Amino acid sequence: MLALADISQELLRRERSTDDAPRRLLYRDRVSFSFRDGESLRGGMARACELAGAPNSWTVLRELGLKHRSRVLVSEDPDIDIGALAEALGVTREEVAARQYPEKENGAREYFGMIVPAGSIESRARRYSPTFLRDRGYHLAAWELKFLPFCPVTWDMLLQHCDACRSQPPQAQGWVRTLTPVDRCDECGRRLADRSTSNVSEGLRPALEIISCLVRCTEKERASVFDLLPSDLGRADPQALLDVILGLAKHMKAPSAEEDGDPQVIRLHRACKAVQSWPTGLDDIEFSASPTGQTLPPLMQNYAALGAEPAINAAEAEYASIKAMNHLTCGNELDRIVGLREASAISGLEDDTLRAAWEAQLITRRYRAHGNRLLPAFEVRELLAFAEAWKTRVSASSVASRFGLPTYAIEQCVIRGHLIPTALSLPGSGYFFSKQAADRFCDGASLQQPAPHIATAALYDLMRLVSGRLKPWGHVLSAVTLGRISAKLEPGDDNQLAKRLQIDESSAKCLIGKEAAKGVPSLCGLSSTICQSDAYEVLNCSATSSGMLDGIASTGINPKLFPLELVAKRAGEVAATSEIAKHLDLDPTRTSRLLSAARVREIVPGGWDRVHAFELINRATLMRDAQLALSF
């Protein structure tokens, strides 16, 4: 250590010392020095001077370019020779540079890679945490941040005075004197670790841990903040998080007098809680700034842009390839975030459709601020890809119309796994398919051809044999596709598929019988309504038997929709005149007379009590079979 005589000689020198002066003053070769974890440059400089016995930091820093004796701006002054300072301290240039706070735009400062607002660095007073000084004994860089009133390590409320001094007002700790260590009072020399202070309450700490992470000194340490945030903020920029927290804390209304705790801590807690609860975290915050002023709208916009709720994986996969192609197109235009109205104009989709897709997370849920509210927003690149995929979808009713099948037959195929729908469908809107999936619905080349001796029947005729219930279209088509039932596809139009598809009659009837033995088929997975033509198909009648639907309320005009459950119930209770006529091999007029004469109850016009009617059919069939037996 320097002797007092040596110190006096150094102080009495009026001429500028040689280039070797800083190194000699700190006695690098005799005193080992290294920066501690998270230590500030000011604190490290003061500790090095104390170790070397220098009475003040000016003794050294004037040799390195510091201009003012009373302000130890070693972290802020751009004229400081950091190379010479690093050599004097015996550390690397990078260690010193990392602890400096270079000035940025509008007076802001860089703090270990983060930008803090102008006036955020406390360079005069030496704030401290008694607990931290007791345990570690050095000055933490985070204590120099004015917006942080507590120690991010120990949760002590930071002090800057010594309550053991008799001076009034109490002596604020500074940076000029270095004969006493940083953990002792400049005035009385007592241990600052022995001073008493309050702590941040336990209930506030989980949210405040966010800002504690953001003021850490390395990028890796700051990344731990994402463990405290919702997954939707997983890609947020730590700088944006800090800016939003500080902005919210600054512009919210002051806490009420009834609230316990430091007002600055309460503000920071509310701001951190708002970020932790993104995107709904602003609901409970009242602002002092005007919603239409120059301050609050940008802050709200920054809050809205912190994160995004990603689209569900299955939906995003539907347009990922289109989006990838769009990525080949450069330009800021495609990366813009737009509101609902502009998104509708760009995509050609209705506002209601886009909003519903956004709410169902079929597209990434982004936000834009409008006053104090957050509204749906979209990235143009993703929006264009989504719109292209959305417009090429084919509905279940369209697929059914193309192949001449009832819509519920297509839905049965989906339930059986024969037809895979696209994930791009709104809840309650039914199934939709890509054009490729619809084209592959019934590929004749993949069918297992029946042997020549096997009797075949058209799928249409086989389904007409089923009555009183929904027909098992999906079960039969799935069995055909999987090769469990052989079939062949005759040439013809797509809309005649049911008549063109010739199926192994015996196997198909066996499968249909097994399904009938299971009882009433489940309606789970099917649309709750059915169009009029499909309703007639379930009832085994045509549009001329319009009375079959009497008493069942319908909605819409074109198409007219009926509740599927009520139609299926009607099919189980009522048999149409045309269906009974086919069983009796009579024309409808004679069948109607016969049913009336047999006193079969007509439940609806052209619809007869199914149980009673089929008893009549069975008796007539037995009589006919007996007559045929006698004739032989």
Explain what this protein looks like in three dimensions.
Mean pLDDT is 87; it is low at 1-18. Strand 1 (109-111) and strand 2 (114-116) form a beta hairpin. The longest helix has 22 residues, at 610-631. The protein is mainly alpha-helical and 632 residues long.
* Binned strand content: 5-15%
- The helicity comes to 40-55%
Order of strands across the main sheet: 3-5-4
Assembly state (oligomeric) = single chain
Helix run count: 28
Give the CA-based shape.
Answer: elongated
Strand segment count: 15
Distance between the termini: 134 Å
The biggest beta sheet is recorded as: 3 strands, antiparallel
Helix and strand composition category: mainly alpha
Radius of gyration, in Å, reads 41 Å
Calculate the mean pLDDT score and round it: 87
Instruction: Give the low-confidence spans.
Output: 1-18
List the helices and strands and how they pair.
Blueprint: H1 4-12, H2 21-26, H3 41-52, H4 58-61, H5 82-89, H6 93-98, E1 109-111, E2 114-116, H7 130-135, H8 205-214, H9 219-222, H10 238-251, H11 263-276, H12 296-304, H13 313-327, E3 337-339, H14 340-347, H15 351-359, E4 366-370, E5 373-379, H16 380-391, E6 394-395, H17 396-403, H18 407-415, E7 432-433, H19 435-439, E8 456-458, H20 459-464, H21 473-481, E9 487-489, H22 497-500, E10 501-504, H23 505-517, E11 529-531, H24 532-538, E12 561-563, H25 564-573, E13 574-576, H26 577-584, H27 588-597, E14 602-604, E15 607-609, H28 610-631
Antiparallel strand pairs: 1-2, 3-5, 4-5, 6-7, 8-10, 9-10, 11-12, 13-15, 14-15
Helix pairs in contact: 8-11, 10-11, 10-12, 13-16, 17-18, 18-21, 26-27
